[in-house]
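Running low. Got one?
___
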Amino acid sequence: MSNFTAERLVIPEIILVRPRKFADSRGWFMETWKAPDFAALGAAVDFVQDNHSMSTKRGTIRGLHFQIPPRAQAKLVRVLRGAIYDVAVDLRRGAATYGKRCGATLTAEGGEQLFIPRGFAHGFCALNDNTEVVYKVDNVYAPECEAGLFWGDPDLAVDWPIHSSEILVSDKDAKLPEFAGFNSPF
């Protein structure tokens, strides 16, 4: 019996996972990753690296990032403190959902996780100050394969749930290319 519920988003390869919390007077416990249960969802991956970020300001946007083949990455994202709006953009040529995006709110309190397979750009926006995010990836970071798309691309039209005056992005993310003219390696 699985200790989570799973919901496929409008792009069915993107899976919102809600682990079950086992609570008692001491606090709670939850399983955040169990290979056989994820494999049953079609998410059979071997994670090789964990990443941890902290965004000090609400409105911080990180992304939309991906690694190109041969170092493409699947990700399993969750929040340790605060909340994020997490987004995936389909970059798989020929897919019915190519160029489409979907997203979900992930919170530390709720324990939700988002599984994003290879072939997708990924980004998130911190909804609270001092938000901490961890994510597992199934391929190591490779700077020579690092790529991304502009977080504010009008063609992708991500509806970031913050006011434009709150947006904080890195110089690097501010210079990422837009989707128009993008030649997908996937």
